[in-house]
C-alpha cells in the first residue's frame, strides 16, 4: 500500500457570488477528481433548472434547495488529491445568513483560499471572512482573483484588486508578501488546474500548483488530547458512537478518557474500545482525524454535541469565567456590560454574559487605547471578561490555542470573534 499522503483541510471563503463553488468544482473536474460522466449529469441538471454555467458549483452544492437558489447553504466536504497532499475541501458559504456554517468551516481549516471577484474587489463579507480566518487560526491563505474573463484578463484590474486585498490582509495580520495572488476564471477554467494562455503577464502558480506549495501544518500531537463531540449516534450492535474531530493530542484504543461537562456537568469517564475513520478501524487517532469511536462506560444520554473528550489524567477545562480578546465585527448598535449573546466555541453553542469591558486595544499592535470603556462598537478590539450561563469547555490561547477561539453570534449574524487568554476553572 502506498504511503498515505499528508492530509490538509482547506476552506474556500469569500463574498457571495464571487465564485467559490464554481472554483472548487472546476478544480475537481480539471484535475481528474471528478469524472466526465458525473460532470455531464450535473451540466444537464443545471440547464434543466435554468442555471446553465452552474454545473461546477453543483459539484459542491449538493442540497436540492441550493441548486434551485444557486447559493451554498451548508458546508460540503469533498476529498481531493494533489501530487503531495490529500485535501479535504470545505466549501464555505458566502451568504450573510450562512456565516454560522462558515465559522464552523474555517475553524476546521488548515489553509484557506480567499475568492475575490475582479469585478467587485473587496466587499463587506470579504473583510469579515479574512478576519474570521485569522481569528480562527487559518494561518496560510492564498487569494484567487476570479472572473478575470469579465474584465478582459486585464493586468491593471488584477493589480488594483491585489492592492485592495493586500491592504485588507495587513490590517488583520497576514503578510501579503507571503500570499500567492492568482488571477483566474473558474467558469472558463483559466489558472485553476490548467495554465491560462490569456494572461501571459502572470507567471505564478495555478490554484492546483499552489495547493502543493502550501506547507503541511504541524500536528499538535504533543498537546493534551482534546476532541470536541459533534454528534452522538446509537448504532445497532455497537452501541453509543460519538463522532468528532481530534483537535490536539492523540487517542489510542485502551485509553482512559473523560468527557466534560457531560449530562451532570461533572464529566463522565470510560475506556476507549474502538476507533473508526472512513469506515476503517484504526488503532490511534491524531489531530485532524474525523473519527467515530466507542467508549466502555458512556451511555447515549451521558454526552452531547459541544462536550469535549480528553484523557482522564488531563481533563478538558471547564471555565467558570474567562478573559478574552475580541474584535467587534458587526453589532447592530454598541456592545456593553451585561450583553449575553451565543458563543460558538468548537462544537458548543452556549450563551455567555460579558461582565466587564477591561480595555480597548489596537488590534494590530495590542497597545491599550482606553481602560474600562463604556461600550464597544464595530471595528473595536478589546479585552473583556465573560461568564458562561452553563458549563463550557474552553482553553487558554497560550496553552491549547486550537480550543481557545470562538465566534459571537446574535440575531443571525456574527457580532464578534475572539480567543480566550485567561480563565478561572470551575470547581
Characterization of this structure:
By secondary structure, the protein is of the alpha+beta class. It folds into 3 domains: 7-213, P-loop containing nucleotide triphosphate hydrolases (Rossmann fold), CATH 3.40.50; 227-311, Elongation Factor Tu (Ef-tu), domain 3; 319-425, Translation factors (Elongation Factor Tu (Ef-tu), domain 3, Beta Barrel). It is built from 8 helices and 22 strands. The protein has helices at residues 20-30, 36-48, 55-60, 64-69, 99-106, 124-135, 155-172, 207-213; strands at residues 7-14, 76-81, 86-91, 111-117, 140-146, 181-183, 227-235, 239-245, 251-252, 256-260, 268-277, 280-282, 284-285, 290-296, 308-311, 319-328, 342-345, 348-361, 368-371, 381-388, 405-410, 413-425. The strands form 4 sheets. The protein has a 6-stranded mixed sheet, with helices on both faces. A 6-stranded antiparallel beta barrel has the order 7-8-14-11-10-15. The longest helix has 18 residues, at 155-172. The radius of gyration is 22 Å and the shape is globular. Mean pLDDT is 84; it is low at 61-77 and 91-106.
